[in-house]
Amino acid sequence: MIGPLPGKPAAALVAITLLAGCGGEDHELASSPDWVRGIRAAVEAVEDELGGPQEYFEVTANPQFTNVFVAVDGASEAVPYLYTDVGLESPGPSLTGAGGRTFVADAIAFDEDRVVSRIAEELPDSSIDGLSVEGGPNGSVRYVATVRSAAGGVLDVVVGADGEILSVAPL
């Protein structure tokens, strides 16, 4: 449930309007962009490179590449990997002082064809700039899309695995 956003009444109105338009309709949705598939492909490439299952802080995909942040040293550091259509690049330098919730590949359970389709349907004049899989409580994940309106505003839209819009927050 979205409450008033201090100092952002227009953003609250947009968020409420977006959520109100998502209820109960049963119509065909547009499919998600092809780059959404980069999330699973990137995780598979990292696990192939490292020889088995890993824990992750976050995996973020956009039309150009996918970033994978692998949790290491008891989840106190993150090692970033970049995955493109060419494949997996060498890891970047370890990021010390990392922390937060982690997840494993099996927790990524979204419907690739629908995870951001509701956003595309409800905001046809906006662009979906990226989709992140973030660690949640007890190894769960949450899916967060970054959406840019034609007018330039940016929203974080949390969606369910099937594309249901769960919450919206202006950035």
Overview of the structural elements:
The protein is α+β, with helices and mostly antiparallel strands and 171 residues long. It folds into 2 domains: 9-32 and 107-170, no CATH class; 35-105. It is 18% helix and 32% strand. Strands 1, 2, 3, 4, 5, 6, 7, 8 and 9 form a 9-stranded antiparallel sheet that branches. Residues 1-27 have low confidence and may be disordered.
Short description, anyone?
The protein is an alpha+beta fold. Helices cover 18% and strands 32% of the residues.
Task: Tell me the layout of helices and strands.
Blueprint: H1 9-20, H2 38-50, E1 56-61, E2 66-72, E3 77-84, E4 87-88, E5 95-96, H3 117-122, E6 127-135, E7 141-148, E8 154-159, E9 165-170
Provide key terms for this protein.
disordered N terminus, 9-stranded antiparallel sheet, alpha+beta, 32% strand, 2 domains, 3 helices, 171 residues
